[in-house]
User: Which sequence fits this backbone?
């Protein structure tokens, strides 16, 4: 009888710890919406400026958490006005790694980043002195992010964050045959999202 009681005591004593460890090791799905604030883009071959305006961004990810690390595959999209009558669309697919800072509270700061590919598309974007861009190109993309999540329950987190997103070596053709190389294609993104644990 004492042996049974001892075993029961060990089981009950370790159950919360085992449960906590299990919560740190799980697959998840996440999605977010936010504000997309691009930089003005100076071309590399002239002094012309391709002006992009603020817009919207959306992201969806599937990942896995182990202890304080998260690894995920993420699809992203943003759209904004450009020039007088044009717009830009960027679709991306990245692999990301994040580090969650355990505070012992429902609030969990995080930091991380990732890299992948992005398709940048310009539609009717006027470039002073060079014509209009209706073109798209694939390029290497990378991002860095920081934010904080709040645990609503064992299965659901809300999060708010900031990320810098950039696509390297963006080159576009204009309607008059000019080749435009953008020095940089970076943007600031502020987002609100939700994460579901499986």
Assistant:
């Amino acid at each position: 009888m004492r042996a049974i009681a001892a075993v029961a005591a060990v089981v009950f004593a370790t159950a919360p710890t085992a449960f906590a460890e299990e919560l740190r090791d799980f697959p998840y799905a996440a999605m977010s919406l936010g504000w997309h604030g691009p930089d003005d883009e100076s071309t590399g071959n002239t002094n012309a400026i391709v002006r992009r305006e603020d817009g919207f961004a959306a992201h969806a990810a599937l990942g896995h958490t182990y202890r304080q690390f998260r690894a995920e595959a993420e699809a992203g999209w943003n759209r904004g006005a450009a020039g007088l009558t044009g717009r830009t669309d960027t679709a991306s697919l990245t692999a990301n790694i994040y580090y969650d800072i355990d505070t012992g509270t429902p609030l969990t700061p995080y930091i991380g980043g990732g890299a992948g590919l992005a398709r940048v598309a310009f539609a009717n974007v006027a470039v002073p002195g060079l014509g209009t861009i209706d073109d798209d190109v694939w390029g290497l993309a990378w991002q860095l992010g920081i934010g904080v999540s709040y645990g609503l329950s064992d299965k659901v987190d809300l999060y708010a964050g900031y990320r810098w997103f950039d696509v390297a070596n963006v080159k576009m053709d204009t309607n008059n045959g000019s080749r435009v190389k953008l020095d940089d294609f970076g943007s600031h993104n502020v987002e609100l999202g939700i994460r579901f644990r499986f």
Remarks:
- The CA atoms of residues 57 and 90 lie 9 Å apart.
- The chain has a mean pLDDT of 86.
